[in-house]
Backbone:
């Protein structure tokens, strides 16, 4: 029997705040004699809000009340009551995630619906979300190729690399359309980000707040930004300024890129002509035009994105309820666990030796850092099908070494496996950690990067645990 639920997605970004309502169809796809398996079988965006500039009190503080007013107004426009909404996601991204009261604003908004995924997305996780929203993963999977998505927003450019549909790498640069702001009435510059001031100096350009915005000067700045984007894609030799402009990390330099996609607000102006380059009181339009005239599109074939400005969240958190396998290990006292972000290792990570697996864990866990602080993450692996005793011992050791940063924070070990080996892996990890850490190891669950998970209290005399996988629903 199929059931439709209403889902909301709210994205509070550096430049813009927006909302999307989706209708999600869920259905039990198992046979009558099997454990229920509820899956998303259809999704449809039924309402897209207006796009608003994110209201700020200062450069350090979000105006939470104004954000809430925007969201409530859009509920009214859509004819939707909060009680109609069954699930959703509130995502806060870009420079806005660094604001002093970001988490407070998120918690306030989560009251507009029942069971929200609420997340402050660090630059790496935002890169993955935006790349999926743009459809870069689908192109990569369908054509068996390597695709890079550049999500160019107001404060940052998030880069994600997809190989055969799976995330291979991420990066983030402090390049965006609102890093220079212009008063439309006086035509004077009101704000220049510190790193962009550095860039201007390296280009020999004298700009400062209070000056009249001169197109030829600001064009030289945006051309400098584009050269740094070219460096990020290894189309130019990387310079010292490139290292300065990196938010947290850049892409590796060993990719052979087949295609590139663009998303974010600036992406719309790569292909659209606009005479008023200061149309939005910033340099976003000019930056888009400079990208169009750069070597990026000449050296890498550009593919059309599914979404541009709405790529980060075009849908909301929708639930697929599942039941774990019956051979599992868990420390019951730490259950339930809510809104756990998931790191899914790729086949490449798992199949190229335990050293690769260990190093991939260490590197990819950094995707989830916010302001260089780690958060609790669930690790998802396919796992070997018919492992030997030695295989289990070595796999467990590699996982322990790979999640060292999590263990130092005294987080429990949470492992999600596809293959039916959770009990032996969980018990082995527990023993290797000298029974000093809490361990949750469940199997028969398939998740993806960008998912969130709830793990409930044990059922059926402790043999299984209920699992809710919250997938950010992309328009794909």
Residues:
């Amino acid at each position: 029997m199929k059931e439709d639920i209403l889902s909301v997605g709210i994205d509070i970004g550096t430049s813009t705040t927006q909302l999307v309502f989706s209708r999600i169809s869920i259905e039990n796809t198992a046979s009558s004699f099997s454990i229920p398996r509820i899956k998303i079988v259809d999704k449809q965006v039924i309402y897209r809000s207006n796009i608003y500039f994110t209201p700020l009190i200062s450069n350090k503080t979000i105006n939470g009340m104004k954000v809430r007013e925007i969201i409530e107004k859009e509920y009214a426009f859509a004819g939707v009551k909060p009680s109609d909404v069954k699930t959703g996601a509130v995502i806060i991204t870009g420079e806005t995630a660094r604001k002093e009261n970001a988490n407070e604003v998120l918690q306030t908004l989560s009251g507009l619906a029942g069971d929200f995924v609420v997340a402050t997305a660090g630059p790496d996780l935002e890169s993955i979300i935006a790349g999926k929203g743009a459809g870069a993963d689908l192109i990569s999977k369908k054509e068996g190729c390597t695709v890079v998505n550049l999500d160019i927003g107001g404060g940052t450019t998030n880069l994600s690399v997809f190989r055969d549909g799976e995330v291979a790498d991420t990066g983030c640069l402090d390049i965006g359309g609102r890093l220079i702001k212009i008063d439309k009435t006086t035509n004077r510059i009101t704000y220049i980000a510190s790193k962009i001031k550095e860039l201007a100096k390296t280009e020999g350009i004298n700009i400062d707040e209070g000056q009249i915005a001169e197109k030829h000067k600001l064009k030289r700045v945006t051309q400098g930004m584009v050269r740094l984007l070219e460096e990020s894609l290894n189309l130019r030799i990387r310079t010292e300024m490139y290292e300065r402009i990196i938010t947290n990390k850049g892409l590796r330099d060993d990719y052979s890129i087949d295609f590139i996609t663009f998303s974010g607000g600036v992406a719309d102006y790569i292909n659209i002509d606009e005479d008023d380059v200061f149309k939005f009181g910033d340099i976003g339009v000019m930056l888009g035009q400079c990208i169009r005239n750069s070597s990026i599109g000449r050296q890498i074939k550009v593919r059309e994105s599914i979404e541009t400005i709405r790529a980060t969240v075009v849908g909301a958190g929708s639930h697929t309820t599942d039941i774990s396998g019956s051979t599992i290990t868990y420390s019951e006292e730490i259950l339930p666990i809510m809104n756990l972000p998931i790191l899914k290792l790729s086949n490449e990570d798992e199949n190229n030796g335990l050293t690769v697996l260990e190093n991939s864990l260490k590197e990819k866990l950094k995707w989830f850092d916010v302001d260089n602080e780690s958060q609790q993450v669930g690790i998802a692996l396919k796992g070997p099908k018919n492992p030997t005793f030695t295989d289990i011992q070595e796999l467990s050791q590699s996982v322990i070494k790979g999640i060292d940063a999590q263990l130092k924070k005294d987080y429990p070990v949470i492992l999600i496996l596809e293959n039916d080996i959770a009990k032996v892996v969980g018990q082995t990890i527990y023993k290797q950690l000298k029974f000093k850490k809490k361990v949750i190891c469940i199997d028969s669950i398939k998740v993806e990067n960008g998912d969130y998970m709830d793990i409930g209290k044990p059922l059926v005399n402790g043999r299984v645990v209920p699992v809710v996988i919250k997938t950010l629903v992309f328009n794909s």
